[in-house]
Amino acid sequence: MIIMLRYYWFFFALILALGRFAQLCALYMMDTPLGGPLVSNFNRFLWYALYSEIGLVMAVALVFWGVSKIVRGKGYTVVKVVSLVLAFLYLVLSATNDEIMRWISQRLTLSYIRTYIFAFTDTGLVSTIFAGSAFHFVLSALIVVAFMVALILYVKKYDLAEASSLPFDKKSAGAVALIFVLAVVGCTSHLWFNPSSRRWDRIRPVAYTLVENVFETFEMSDPGEHYREGIIALGGNPDQKYPFWKEAKDEKASMEFFKAKPMEERPDIIVLTIESLRGWALDMRIEESCNRFRNLCKLARGGAYYPNTHSVGFPSIEGLLGIMQGVFSFPQGIFLNSYPNTKMRSISEILSEAGYYTEVLIGSEPNFDNSLVWFQKWFDFYEYNAENENDVALAKRFVELYRERPADKPLFFHWMSRSMHTTFDLPPDMGPKPEDLDEAYLKATAYMDSSLGIILDEVENGTRARNTLFVLTGDHSLLNGKQSLLTEKLGQIFDGFTWVSLIFNGPGIEPAVIENPVSQADLAPSLLGYLDISASNHFMGVDLLGKGMPAVGAFPPVFSFRFGDMAMRRDSLTYLLPQCTISDSVMVFKSYLKPTWNTSSLVAGYGTGMPFAMDAAMKSEIGRTMQAAAIAWRYIVYSNLLMP
């Protein structure tokens, strides 16, 4: 009894650490929802994570020991309640962080919380995600409940007031010394015990991440010593206050000229954003893919097809940023929710000023990722209806809205699919979902493709068939089982997260396959070029179409960012820079610009590019330039310098 009282806070922290250990075992020893383990060797992560977690809980226990020596009377009750509440938050936040890691290989951050704080409003999507990994969700909840019950029973059985009233003798000092040593050793273990900044970035306790997020804002006010070089790398003008702002002096005249054109010279634009489009699996240069997905193939082979397109980031709301705003993702968070007051001008807002009627049909609850405010800003009309949470229903709703469109205005319509979102659930009349996740994805893709057929048929049978430009792309890609094991080495923004496709199919566009890497951010400037509209903008992409013809020749580098990691693609080389704002150690890969990987397995046949040997000096210079670009772009966003 006296030992338990003397070591009161040590045993409290030990119970909490055991709870976290159970969570870590579930994280690293069980398969992810995409198939296969989270890491190739759990011993390289689990124990290192545990040491730092022990350090954290022991450090907190040391603080509570000090507080409990000061308080009196009811203060002990307050200390017990606060300690239990913090323990509960610690376990719940850690469990949440683990689930996010399992699903999308991402940590829980303040930016992530701001984005998904209303995720529960999409009950359909939340329930399918839960069903896709129900056992792990339940296990995580049981671990939290079990160890919270253990802590409550412990606090009830052993009196804190009695423990705190014990004289501070050698034995008591030994108990405090034990907590202190474990706290120091654990909290610093990532610095001296086989240190690896890449591993630490993945295993650090969620509390560290959240605190670090707060202090990151102080760093963002610094443009970096290589600001000029970074802005130039991103395609901006470092001599301007707003480096990416392109002022169109003739904008008003251009808009009026366009609006005065007859309707047949003002084409409708229908943007089809496909959920989780895996560019390698849905490559229409592969005959099997073309045969499986006839409508997608029809669009690709009848238009300007860019099979090596990459999203600006991950998840969906980042893809939306690239498509609608024409800018890259924020290097250390989710742009639209981290900086909602940023002055920006979307492609739909520009087209609205040019006389277009703009509307969007959303497949997933916009409150899920807190994107509703952006749809309200961007479009004349927006709609989400829980009854249309599958792509065929969504396509039929498109038909209804398309027929109700204003007759005197060209149409800009953004259709956002749903059915290819994990866990690939389809309506009951489509039969059982394949147990194999790759087959489930392909079945969901075929279902999506049938919905494209509904949309294409409606337009082709209407009066605007020859006056409609279709644009198809993906919001982001999706890891396969093989790629999920590569995140520990390659980071969070390689091909498995970003490889999508881009298609322009409409009047004046010659069928062509352009294999150069391009970006989602190219969509917006390409539409302005296609329509020959001069408008001031901050688009960071390039015009791929001009006045209808696919661009050829040199292409600028393609950038993607995600929570500290960065990718740059130039011609056939891919440069990956994890922890881009603090490291310039870049990895180089030779990209597959043609489908020469294992195409016999559409989903699982591709992992990533081939490692490429490069001169060390050149590699170092590229890494430094990429880091400069990341820091400069971070500064631009933080300082709200996209447009006047």
From TrEMBL:
Give the UniProt subcellular location, in the record's own words: Cell membrane
Q: How does it sit in the membrane?
A: Multi-pass membrane protein
**Which keywords label this protein?**
Cell membrane, Membrane, Transmembrane, Transmembrane helix
The signal peptide, as residue positions, is none
Instruction: Output the SUPFAM superfamilies linked to this UniProt entry.
Output: Alkaline phosphatase-like (SSF53649)
Q: What is its main location?
A: membrane
Any matching Pfam family:
Sulfatase
Where does the chain cross the membrane?
46-68, 75-93, 137-155, 175-193
InterPro entries, alphabetically? Alkaline_phosphatase_core_sf (IPR017850), OpgB/LTA_synthase_biosynth (IPR050448), Sulfatase_N (IPR000917)
User: Which is a Gene Ontology cellular component entry for this protein?
Assistant: plasma membrane
| Protein name in UniProt | Sulfatase domain protein
Q: What lineage does the source organism belong to?
A: Bacteria, Pseudomonadati, Fibrobacterota, Fibrobacteria, Fibrobacterales
